Amino acid sequence: MIRISGRQITPENIFNQYSLNNIQRNIVNTMAASNFRYNFVSLDQLKFELDLRMSIINASIKLNSSGLEFRVFTKTFCNTDFWTRTNEGGFLLKNNVIPNNAIDDIFRNGRRYGTECATAMVIIYYKAVLDMYPVELFNSMFSNIQLMNWHYLNKNLGINNYTNQIDYFPGDCRYFKNPDVNPLRSYLQGENAIDLGNGTYYGHGMGITTGDDIIRILNRNRKIGATRSAYLLDSATRPNFNYLASRYYEFITA
Hints:
Helix content: 25-40%
Structural class: alpha+beta
């Protein structure tokens, strides 16, 4: 169910106030029908989450067409005008570089970058928030960025992994696990992928495809004698939508 300041509301309450696309309407309907309580302080906070989820989807599509290459951490590379490559294979924002310009450069000049799938998901989250926020707010909140999988995230993104969820939504990052991966291709032990909301996912290195296709690709990269299929984990990684919304509304109303 959806609760606004403690009061349960129906999808019609939301549809009457906002113009939503089909993906957003489906999210609302799923939330409203769920046994889980989705709590928001206002309808605007809910609308922010719906819009940020669409921004995540759009950023995924943009990254897919950017030319960003797939590389394991030992072979990553980046545009040194904006980033310093770390010894671990991550990208550290250079001093005196404006954060929004550095993130946007990945989408403009993707062929000057190469990294693995988890880092690509992090890049998507930064771009999605950038496209939602005023530039001044983004740059103040994300003045120190290090891009490298899930371990160097700016705390303001509030990224968390949620397991055994009742509901999953477009804009969630899902993980396809390959338990019997070929040890010579350990980088295919799994695939992080954004749910695009239309039956497809974006996974860096695999592009935009279905979940079944991701599983087929992973299964082609199992060790000899493997008996276990790759599968979609019952978990999702997502930002703290309510926190990001609160910072947004604090800024625009100040």
